[in-house]
Amino acid sequence: MQITVKIYRHIPGVDTQPRYDEYTLDVDPKERILDLLENIKGFKDGTLAFRRSCAHGVCGSDAMRINGRNRLACKVLVQDLDTDQIVIEPIIGLDVIKDLIVDMDPFFEQYRSVLPYLINDDPLPADGKERLQSQEQRARFDDTTKCILCAACTTACPPFWANRKYVGPAAIVNAHRFIFDSRDHGAEQRLSRLSEPDGVWRCRTVFNCTEACPREIKITQAIAEVKEVLASGKINYKGVQIGPERVGSG
Amino acid sequence: MQTHQYEVIIVGGGGAGLMAALNASRGAKTAVLSKLYPSRSHTGAAQGGIGAALGNLEEDHPEWHTYDTVKGSDYLGDQDAIEFMCNEAVEAVYDLEHFGLPFSRTPDGRIAQRPFGGHTNNVTGKPVRRSCYSADRTGHMILQTLYQQCIKNNITFYDEFQVFDVLVANGAVAGVVAVDLATGELHVFQAKAVVFATGGFGRVWEITSNAYAYTGDGVAICLRRGIPAEDMEMFQFHPTGILKLGILITEAVRGEGGVLINGEGERFMERYAPHVKDLASRDVISRAIYMEIRDGRGINGKNYLYLDARPETINKYAEADGRTRPDGTPYRVTGEEILSKIPDIADFCRTYLSVDPIKDPMPVQPTAHYAMGGIPTDVYGRVLVDDKNTILPGLYAAGECACVSVHGANRLGTNSLVDILTFGKHAGLNAAEYVKGTDFQNLPEDAAGFTMAQIDQMRNGDGTEKVAELAQEMKREMFNNVGIFRSEAGLKAAYKKIQELRERFTHIRVQDQGKIFNTELINAWELGNMLDLALVVTESALARTESRGAHAREDYPKRDDANWLKHTLAWLKDGQVTLGYKPVTITKYQPKERVY
Lengths: 250, 596
Ligand SMILES: Cc1cc2nc3c(=O)[nH]c(=O)nc-3n(C[C@H](O)[C@H](O)[C@H](O)COP(=O)(O)OP(=O)(O)OC[C@H]3O[C@@H](n4cnc5c(N)ncnc54)[C@H](O)[C@@H]3O)c2cc1C
Ligand code: FES
Known about the structure:
The structure holds two protein chains of two kinds.
Chain A: E1 2-9, E2 19-26, H1 33-43, E3 63-66, E4 69-72, E5 85-89, E6 96-98, E7 101-102, H2 105-113, H3 135-140, H4 158-162, H5 168-179, H6 187-194, H7 208-212, H8 219-232
Parallel strand pairs in A: 1-5
Antiparallel strand pairs in A: 1-2, 3-4, 3-5, 6-7
Chain B: E1 2-11, H1 15-24, E2 30-34, E3 50-51, H2 62-72, H3 79-99, E4 113-120, E5 127-132, H4 138-152, E6 156-159, E7 161-169, E8 172-180, E9 186-196, H5 217-224, E10 229-230, E11 235-242, H6 252-255, E12 259-261, H7 269-272, H8 282-294, E13 305-308, H9 311-321, H10 335-341, H11 343-353, E14 362-371, E15 375-376, E16 382-384, E17 391-397, E18 402-403, H12 415-436, H13 449-460, H14 467-481, E19 485-486, H15 488-505, H16 519-543, E20 552-553, H17 561-564, E21 566-573, E22 576-583
Parallel strand pairs in B: 1-2, 1-9, 2-6, 9-17, 15-18, 19-20
Antiparallel strand pairs in B: 3-5, 4-5, 7-8, 8-9, 10-21, 11-14, 12-13, 13-14, 16-17, 21-22
Helix pairs in contact in B: 1-4, 1-12, 2-3, 3-12, 5-16, 14-15, 14-16, 15-16
């Protein structure tokens, strides 16, 4: 089928202003949007810039706005869009460096700010083997382990657009992944970070993040669960018996 | 041009690189340079699991793991190195758990394990549950967990810095040259030790499970500096890639009971591997698929087959095989259980094929997957530059870009993740130890000269050739003539074609003359790397007149231990490949015929 693809082009500091370049392509409806970009770059315009690596939705390189929605270019097929007019733009809220490439550093800074690593100073099991964790305990935080840090959620979030200091859904998802891990003892530190003015309370439950997530993480729910812990001072392991409450008294 | 100084530079932020960084940084000033943000590395794509004889569900031993790996390698793996790795595997997995990796769990809360191709109980010969997993996202969890530990330990990263060259002075490592992709500026990093952990090069082939970033940079950089590449003809084709796209469908699907079915509805692996059937080694299954298709038994006579993971199919064959659960009850599954074990595979099938794997079979074909060969090293990650195992002081390599050799002629599933952890760790530890007793080498004058020359060439060619076209031609040629089956005529044709493409490559000119994220220039340079590797692979394959593991010659169908129980070493100089050989280390296991 024949389609037109309009792509946002801009190199701040070099081009005076952004423009849209339009390309007409003959494509198989089963092609990925990433295939179109590769095709354009390889055969029509080598100067087009975008990131990509795995090409099947697991590395998080190619989040972009495709017909107005944050998606991974490698995980959307032409036929999924139900149109022959495709508009591709960079994600919003992070500075464009070139075309579809944005500056990811602030995003990773926010990720780092929630201490995204296991905190547990208890001695390891004496036999050197694994810590035990029941299947239910493991299931409790399964959903938020899936995050690939693509930023589709954070850059779909209106409160983040309004205030770039907001820690954003992706960082909260990663905090959730540890707060609800029965092996972790760092909830208090993470929650104190998330209760700052640019923390979790900036979330207005818009649900854009959940819609944008290519890994289908229930982000809004995860954020709500973190809010609940902050409000109640207790980690609700939901029917899971093992694992003491670790949020201190407050 | 900026200059930096670190004792240890690690090139690559995947599993091997991060493991090296965590270990090196404890004793030395260390930085990681990675062309991708570390969390984008291809380790994150690994699905099925990491092999270690924990014995959480049934009896198992590191010695069994060792033997299976030796046999899987078709006896080309070095047995001392394999034993070392399989012993270390157990601790490596526990280390990951202690770092916080969310493994799937057994009912009693231990790390869950599943069967995988080629991993067996050495007494009964039946598949053993050895692959430790986290659903079908094991690599994602490993990459995330190691990256998290790096954040915790304040490791220094230069993200989106692409290394172009390694500097050697007075016979020892002096540093690397890298391009900062965001600015296009060149940076020189002076270093006492450099660890390459740059991953594989499957993008040389048309159908591949590998990421765009898998262009073999580390191996190509080393080749240009006179360092050989080992066993490059040994490249693994995984039996089950998604039709046309090549996206991997993990062996775990077969571990959970899925079977391969041909156009006649037959579970054909019973004919090729009567004992372990669909869980034979990858090379064996890929060849079987090829032969089924060649003999007209593809689906509707076409070039693909079905991988069937519908519960009714799984249960039918589990019953026929008498498969049981660890508690002795018959193995029967529901659709829901299957989906919970392979959620990402199900997602890929729906996204790319509009197929629901518990309702429809998945169309699959073999896909270029894994480089057994690479930069020659010992078990400490030290790079060996000749057939006498001479070391180049300060140079290390680990992970898929290295060849220790633990995978020999064919890697077993789950063993690459073991490899990247074990050898990443030891390369890091040894690099840190080495730098204590040594000084920085003076940087050569014009340290970035060689890199500049390469860049200038790509900017200033006459523009009569196009990178994307050359790439397509290379991929097609390699898939057709240097794929699962090879022959003298095909290999010679491929060699000629690759040489032609290399000549045409000198005529390219990148259209983008800017500096900021000039990914066109980067892609062009990467194609140059792939063309070098394609040439080395083809020449190594042409010389090896036998069939062993992944290297199957139609004209030499038998393994020939008398002449070929040896590693290939290939040097690339002035566009010509020179070959040498070195012996395989055999300790306990004398080569014998390989039957599954
Ligand atoms: C789809 C898939 C599934 C797999 N499943 C399994 C499995 O279940 N079990 C298993 O054992 N193995 C599996 N493998 C194999 C295994 O995942 C890889 O071999 C392994 O992860 C490679 O790790 P690495 O650290 O060597 O490389 P990578 O993780 O790929 O890291 C390479 C790094 O090098 C960097 N780099 C490359 N070139 C340069 C340069 N020029 N300059 C700077 N940086 C550079 C990249 O940015 C990246 O950070 C699978 C592979 C694939 C493709
Ligand atoms: S390229 Fe990896 S997520 Fe799209």
